[in-house]
Amino acid sequence: MRMNLSAEPGEPCRPGDPDGPHESGDLGEPYEAGAGLRSLSARSVVLSLLLGAHPPQLPVKDLVRLVEPFGVGGSTLRAALSRMVAAGDLRRTDAVYGLSDRLLARQRRQDEVVHPRTRAWDGGWEMVVITATGRTPAERADLRTRLTALRLAELREGVWLRPANLARPLPDELYRVAQSYTARPDGSPHDLVARLWPLDAWAATARTLLTRAAVSRHPADRLTAFAAAVRHLLTDPVLPPALLPPDWPGEALRTAYADYQRELAESVGLRGIGD
Q1: Contact 165, 119 (CB under 8 A)
Q2: Residues 167, 117: contact at Cβ < 8 Å?
Q3: pLDDT digits (tens, 9 = 90+) for 233-259
Q4: C-alpha to C-alpha distance for 138 and 119, rounded to whole angstroms
Q5: Which of these, 95, 93, 55, 51, lies nearest to 77 by C-alpha position?
Q6: Contacts for 71 with CB less than 8 Å, ≥ 6 apart
Q7: What is the pLDDT of residues 20-33, one digit of tens each?
Q8: How many Å apart are CA 250 and CA 41, to the nearest integer?
Q9: Tally of CB atoms within 10 A around 273
Q10: Distance of CA 76 to CAs 116, 135, 253, Å?
């Protein structure tokens, strides 16, 4: 099984979650004022381990051993597991804990964060135009979250686009509220990219996270740093190389995280973790 610390939009209090509510002590905000990192809770550690496990389930005896290097004691772990089952995050079968159904699809999507599926770019762009009307504020916010998770960016209200270099279809349910097109802008694609994504800010944060991960030594500090890194990678627009600025740190951040996966597998001694 592989270790993965990230998560997807819409689930509360999960390491790497790019938006949505978070309880105190979890990795709701991976960086504050220059990538200052928050501490891990027992819940964050457990979900980090299970979100990265393939299959995503572990016996309680293994969880007790695995969370100890992160400063989580047995009694704290068991209390957290009980709360997580009650909250619908986990399911329990005998003494084995696994992710609930509502987290499994998130896990599948988060697995793509290190190796996003791309294709050669021919200069075309994906364009999604929202056609539905009469939606509630909550529905509009949910749609924005879903489009952002698809790595689309909003040019103006209701018009979302990106270079057509991702090897993934748009979800069928999107077509109930939108139409999609293939476009080829007349102007400079670099100028359009600059309007859609704050690339300089993203790169600056990525470099800060790389530095933080490199200097972290305690297991909990490193887990926190890389959970933050994965959350940041979820907001990487994954642009074609021709549209990226020089020295773009996206691949370096992915490589550092992949190296950490192997390190974590060795440190916890759980057979099958890592690539």
Answers
A1: yes
A2: yes
A3: 999 999 999 999 999 999 999 999 888
A4: 34
A5: 95
A6: 40, 220
A7: 333 323 333 333 33
A8: 27
A9: 22
A10: 36, 43, 32
